[in-house]
Design brief:
Two copies of one chain form a homodimer. Chain A has 223 residues and is mainly alpha-helical. Helices cover 71% and strands 0% of the residues of chain A. Chain A has helices spanning 8-32, 39-46, 50-56, 60-64, 66-81, 88-101, 103-107, 113-125, 127-151, 161-182, 188-200, 202-206. The structure holds a DNA duplex (30 and 30 nucleotides).
Amino acid sequence: METASQPGLRELKKQRIRDALLRAALELFLTQGYERTTVDEITAAVDVSQRTFFRYYAGKEEAVFFTHSVAASHFVDAVRARPRHEAPLEALRQAVLQGWDGIGETIEQIIPVELHLRTYQLIESTPALFAAHLRRSAEVEEEIARVIAEREGLDVDTDPRPRVAVAAFGGVMRVTERLWGTGEDISVAAIHELTVSHLDAVRPALAEKWRTGRGGTDPAAVE
Amino acid sequence: METASQPGLRELKKQRIRDALLRAALELFLTQGYERTTVDEITAAVDVSQRTFFRYYAGKEEAVFFTHSVAASHFVDAVRARPRHEAPLEALRQAVLQGWDGIGETIEQIIPVELHLRTYQLIESTPALFAAHLRRSAEVEEEIARVIAEREGLDVDTDPRPRVAVAAFGGVMRVTERLWGTGEDISVAAIHELTVSHLDAVRPALAEKWRTGRGGTDPAAVE
DNA sequence: AGGTTAGTGACAGCCGCTGACAATTGACAA
DNA sequence: TTGTCAATTGTCAGCGGCTGTCACTAACCT
């Protein structure tokens, strides 16, 4: 139950193993593929027993999403920190962009950012991981919906708008991630740009008259 | 390679086994829970070998989503059949409602509709199934996005609007399903009503000024 | 009737994952 | 330092999902 006072040899060892397992797992997943990598291979690379792996991570899946969990909670915090005068969609937009831009500082303490960014490619190309990713995203969205409801002084169980807004936003974020993750350029700049252009396309996309504003670079179309 | 010409004894037997396995599986899943039901239990109930189950269904998961696949392709067809003058969102809305209202005729030929509707509760309460459901939905959405793009004479890879519109719409549909599937009333009427109210809440939810239109029953708020 | 082929059962085996227990090793006090 | 206690690990056994293989049975076709 210690945080940063006296790491202790025991705690240090644990941290080292946890980290080694994570790196070994990700590296193997990224080179051989997720399914083709067995837990035995991972533990062999770190020289611990298979059982030990499962003591640190609930399964292969959890290793893949370890850094994603960190990023997700940063995102939730970012939404909470947005000024109240911002409209919900605007707050979400800023929080996401903020999350991406700060992904370096957030993740680098655990693993090289590049490794983290590559996991998106892995996730998008591995059905089982893609499914898990969507499920996790859904959980985050439920949390965000409650935050938004609180911001606006609403009850999530009475007013559908918080969940609806977050669901629509989340849907767009996921197509954005997918396009980015299946493309070649996995840079932060690329995801930032894609996010902006997709969010700018939301209102035009929901409008009746698509023939009006062309493409996704038209900012104030409709309404 | 036959369709409906001469069923043949062989084909009949296969159909009987496929159906028996499906019913047994769903019934067991719904009574004992998905994870707590083993394939051996399912095959024991039908009196075939475990191996045979895997010859008909890729896994337990596929059995759960068997009828969902049928419903999904009906939905895609419905979108294709919508008149071209309808705005994308309107076409999607009509197609979904149409799909729900006709779910009886669609599914009843395979299993009792009630069994199908109950699978939603199972899916929403089983993380592994929920994840799989989201993944499948994402696949359908990609297909729908292409249909919408074609309707509007656009290129999905150039204009972000088709995917964005479908993603936002899909996100809302999934929160709708979730609310419905975790509630008590799993009637078709209930999902129809929830769908309508959530879709009506989309535009208000994406507006800047939430303080204006209250709740999700305000039809023409904003814009 | 008899050869062909589809479909099944039986068996072996891999892999993810879990429970149980013994062995090891760090933490802490005498 | 040394002994005790508690935390961590390795080992072993086993379940369940899933797959490959192969012999066997039963439907199909002439």
